Amino acid sequence: MEKVEPRDFIVDDRENGTFRVNRRAFADPEILETERREIFDRTWLYAAHVSEINTPGSFLTRKVGGRPVIVTSDALGKPHVFLNSCPHRGNLVCLEKSGSARALTCFYHAWSFDLSGKLLGVPDAEAYTPAFKREEMGLRPVPRMENYRGMIFVSYDPDIVNLESYLGDAREYLDYMIDFGGEEVEIVQGAQAYSMKANWKLLVENSMDGYHALSTHQRYFRQYLPDIGMDPAAWVGANRTMGRGVNLGGGHAMVESPQRPTPLTGSAKAELDAIRARLVEKHGPDRAHRIADYTRNLFIFPNLILISLWHTVRTFYPLRPDYMEIDAWALFPKNDSQQLRQKRMDNFLSFLGPGGFATPDDVSGLEGCQRGFATMRELPWSDISRGMGREEPSSQDELQMRAFWRRWNALIQGKRGPTDCADRPERRLAAE
Ligand code: FES
Known about the structure:
Structural class: alpha+beta
Distance between the termini: 42 Å
Bound molecules: FE2/S2 (inorganic) cluster
Number of domains: 2
CATH architecture of the largest domain: Alpha-Beta Complex
Radius of gyration: 23 Å
């Protein structure tokens, strides 16, 4: 097969409305190496929510950007993120998923560390020379960590811009995702952890793809929604006619549609109405309207998606070009009644995740695409041009995916500056 240069992975003809992605981008191990180096090692990555380590001495472990990390709350309640590798000889210091402790002890030679990372104990320490500096042998923090309204992000690039600048226009919509309950939010205990035999960028596309919803998720729309008293036509109609796809710059993007009527009745509905009133009181009617009356799938480049209909926070990372691991959590208001919490959880579990109506369908679709890429010599291009000629692309179009791909394409070529992720050249010129 002929060599394909990174610049050849995208055909982006904005004048004529053609956008194609070379399928090699989904299957080439060299591209994955480039993505690790130029994207995952140089962007902000979501790691955890402060509510998961909400008492001094609590900790959790997970993988972020391909590295094992430990997220802790130290004795003063300050959050930290450390690489989960012992400064002695490399063992994973913490093997537990989560817990609470005064110290973390590496089982290999029993070095111990407090939750601010400081080295506490070294068995038989007298064997070391004066050149052994205890203060340099603590747990190694990630190069950068910032907390945006409870969401802890890390970066392996010490020189990256601050998180708020990185989020840019996506920040406003991230605020809406956090403010929807009118009060503090928390990650509900437990997580959905699963994998797919598919390239990670297929899940980026799928996570903000309104076009596939009705055809792929027929059981949900045609059976489940009527079963719970909802009208699928109203649901899908609003999405089709009034939803929009939005480029938020920096590779961030979103699909947004008017909020569907809630199927809840009785006291759960009254509680939702009270939350709505609180939002108006706190933020004023305009902002409350923007927070409460739309559903959004918000994508933060490169691998975080927040889905407001189910209050899902999802992140994913590729282990191979054709295999990724996915983690997802529910982000709910802290002080909901037990009844409303249960309703939100039923809703959360009904659609996304391994036991939901949607995710198994999506797994079939994405793994099917990956298997289909075996034909890439004869069929080298995927088309992502839907809605390219429209003044305002809808949520059924693909502007939001093109925004991701334009940033991806710039970064894998080592272009670190701003990327123009928009569709329309005339607007770019007018703005200049
Ligand atoms: Fe951790 Fe030796 S590798 S104490």
